[in-house]
Write a structure and sequence with these properties.
about 150 residues, mainly alpha, elongated
Length: about 150
């Protein structure tokens, strides 16, 4: 009975998280959909960061970070759905004699949960980097106005 309550609380938590992430994703997708996300190698990104001088340069980097963050948010939503699916498996907690399959399903659910958590953390860090680049773009725009 206790494990059923824990499972119900866990499922509700995962679903509410998925709802919040999809709401955030939807609102930011509208902004990001104005142009297709740019695909850059790490070396190209490093070069852009090192040479960014104009507001447009910093905004381009910010858009790249935001697009990457949206991808991680989408991954987190997918992973949360997988965790729910693993936990719905009738073999997760019932099969006491099937130690290896029971253990495998529990490990798969834990791995998906960790993957979801990592994706969320990466998305937050990338969104912070995007904000920093946008702030740099604003500073560059103000300094170019002062220089005129």
């Amino acid at each position: 009975m206790k494990s059923t309550k824990k499972l119900a609380v866990y499922i509700v938590s995962v679903l509410s998280l998925a709802f919040v992430l999809s709401a955030v994703s939807f609102s930011q997708t509208a902004q990001a959909s104005q142009s297709a996300p740019e695909k850059l190698t790490q070396q190209q990104l490093n070069t852009m960061i090192a040479n960014a001088k104009t507001p447009a340069d910093h905004q381009r980097i910010a858009r790249y970070y935001e697009a990457q963050a949206q991808q991680y948010i989408a991954d987190a939503i997918k992973n949360s759905a997988k965790v729910v699916a693993y936990n719905k498996s009738p073999y997760t907690n019932i099969c006491l004699m099937c130690v290896s399959s029971n253990y495998s399903l529990q490990m798969a659910a834990r791995a998906q949960g960790l993957s979801e958590q990592i994706a969320e953390e990466r998305a937050m860090k990338l969104q912070e980097l995007a904000k920093q680049q946008q702030a740099m773009a604003d500073v560059a725009a103000m300094s170019s106005r002062v220089g005129q």
